[in-house]
């Protein structure tokens, strides 16, 4: 499988470009509008046909490229069920799959960071990997204090869904702020400080105590992303 992990320095966002090397069908997860020149170059250089452009949720820290990728390359834009973005081509439900070539990206509803948060699971080349958006970060979890976030629901998404995956499943989050590109489910169980709590009540108390400032681009990004990044 063709795989590229791309990074937007301004928003600390990871974007993932995945493709079947035989059919050249591709999927892009969490694309950033400001990185469109890079996406054009990569799709052209590698002769890829972008079949899907997927956001793991309505982001508050950057403007998505879903609309631009749909308009320029004909990619089907995808959000999880529960998103309020009427602009997307398809709302995917828990357990549904996006096929590209011989591969299948499986949707996992993981609300809590936002009420529309989804993760996506993939088996490729003998590896299991999960793209966790902001639900599970490397040594962290996504905040739950806006966009209908709920720490208790996020705890259930983590413990009942993501952390039930095999320990060697590779974790690819939407962001990282500490210089790490990937992790494993087993690592996060062992070393993620937000997962070392006794129960749901303790997790809720922990998340409620964070007192974080709003994302810098929130007022711009959320309305724009409900329109798939179109002005």
Helix content: 10-25%
Please state the overall shape, judged from the principal axes of the Cα atoms: globular
Structural class: alpha/beta
Beta-strand residue fraction: 25-35%
**Per CATH, what is the topology?**
Metallo-beta-lactamase, Chain A
Description:
By secondary structure, the chain is of the alpha/beta class. It has a single domain (2-212), classed as Metallo-beta-lactamase, Chain A (4-Layer Sandwich). The protein is built from six helices and 14 strands. It has a six-stranded mixed beta sheet. The protein has a six-stranded mixed beta sheet with strand order 7-8-9-10-13-14. Helix 1 links the parallel strand 3 (25-29) and strand 4. It starts with a strand and ends in a 6-residue tail after the last helix.
Keywords:
Metallo-beta-lactamase, Chain A, 6-stranded mixed sheet, 14 strands, 23% helix, 231 residues
Put the structure in a nutshell.
The chain is α/β, with parallel strands linked by helices and 231 residues long. It has helices spanning 36-45, 66-73, 151-160, 185-191, 200-208, 218-225, and strands spanning 2-8, 13-19, 25-29, 49-54, 76-80, 90-92, 97-100, 103-109, 118-124, 127-133, 136-137, 140-141, 170-173, 183-184.
